[in-house]
Amino acid sequence: MKRFFILIMLICLSACKPEPARPQNASAGSTPQHTQNITIQTVDGSITLPLHPAKTAVYDYAVLDSLTALGVIPDIAPANNLIPYLEKEFQSIPHKGGTIFEPDLEQLNTIRPDVIFIGSGSNKMQAELEKIAPTVNMGAFGGHLIADGLQRLTELGKLFGKENQAFQLKQATEKLLHETRQSIHNRQPENALVVMVNGGKLSVFGTDSYFGWLYQELGLAMTETDLNLDKYGLPASFELLHKANPDVIFVIDRSSAVGEKSQSASQVLDNPLIHQTRAWQKGQIVYLSGTAFTAGGGIRQIQQDLTTIKQSFEKTD
Prior knowledge:
By secondary structure, the protein is of the alpha/beta class.
């Protein structure tokens, strides 16, 4: 009988034992914590992504430019760096492979990033990349490349919690754009022409091209030529440039931009026919950075080339 009473007491004590304390932020029936999401704007419209993506892949040099300017280092990027001023940041990227045209699918499948950023160069691979992770086209386009670049910067700032840094960079760039336009206005050029030099070959680009921002966003009229310029450049000759006789020539050295050894653009344009143009005689041949070709729309590309243009127009005749 004594043993029976001891057993009953043990059962009662066990039933009265208090439950373990719940965490302070938990309650009965509560659901597990979910990752916070945010919606950003892209070339293809809006997309909802996890805030502060843990792993990021970047296959667009303009995005790489702007993202690293915000202090964000991606987990994987193209094998080769085509942005000279990003050498330090590029060395910090843990994985590299492929190109902007052909991303490294094997590495991407291994890394499994939370988001893949692409631009116009990689958009043909977008469907394939979507099988690995959400793929976001953040390209910037021709006639409104600066406006697009600033918008992409703002959206990246939102996604990575870098709104203040993005806002400060945007403000500084808008101020620089205003000053550059004013410097151009003070010289009152009638027109301009964008010329790409590729080895010894010349191409010219119009207002709807990848370099259309040099006309549209700087307020410059395009020099009339005998060519029907569309969004792609068309082959040109020294004779054509001489006949067009622009007030301003913007020059992009493609060979230098992609790391090819060739005659420099300045050497190619040191030509008797070019010497007779108003652009040469006024000292208004402006050599843009190689990143105007490889990373157009990146925040530091925009700032670098606007500074070059501004300083060129501030020189006295």
